Amino acid sequence: MLTKPIVMLDFETTGLSPDMGDRITEVAALRIADGVIVERYVSLVNCGVRVPSFITSLTGITQQMVDTAPPAHEVVPRLLEFIGADALAAHNASFDEKFLRAESTRLGMAPMHAGTVCSLKLSRRVYPQLYSYKLGNLGSQLGIPFRGTAHRAEADAEVAAEVLLHIGRHLASSYGIAAVEPALLMSVNKLAAAKVAAFLRKQSVTAQ
Prior knowledge:
Blueprint: E1 6-13, E2 24-33, E3 36-44, H1 53-59, H2 63-67, H3 72-83, E4 87-90, H4 93-106, E5 116-118, H5 119-126, H6 135-142, H7 153-175, H8 182-189, H9 193-207
Parallel strand pairs: 1-4, 4-5
Antiparallel strand pairs: 1-2, 2-3
Helix pairs in contact: 5-7, 5-8, 6-7
C-alpha cells in the first residue's frame, strides 16, 4: 500500500492568506514510499517579514529564529526540487498548496507535483464517525501521538503522514486493495462520504 511516492507537506506561516501578504516561516516535506517515511526536507524560512506575536504564541517560532533562517530564495527551490513530480499531500491541502504556489510564483517558478491529496478531506470520507478532524484530535483518535511540538512543521507533517499511512492500511485491510496509490486517494477525496464504500468495493473487484 502507498507504493508510489507521495510527499506530505506542512507550512507554518505568518497568517492565513498569501494574497494578504502572509508568508511562510517554516516548511517540512516528508516523502512516503512503501508504507514508511523515507526522506525529509525541513527548514525555517526567512521571508523578510514580521512574525506576529500570536503566531509566536501558537507555534513557538520567534522573530529571531526567522531572521537567522535561510532565505526563501534558497528554501523554496530546494523544496520544489525535493517534491519533484511526486504526488503531494497535506492536511487541509488547499492552505499549504496556495502558499507553495504563491512562494514559487514570487521566484518565477512553478510546482511540478502530480496532483494533491488532502488528508483532512480523506479522513472525513474514510472515517465519517469521528468527532473531530483537526490534526491533533484526529491523531489521538487513531492512536497517533505527536513526537514533537504541535504547530511546528515537522511534527505536524509527521502526524499527517501517519494519518495517511493509517488510511492506506485501513483501505488495504477493509477492501482488499493491496496497492493504495495517490490517484486512488485523490479520487476518494472528490467523493461524498456516502459513496466512498461502494467506490472502494468496486476498486477492489476491478483489481482482482
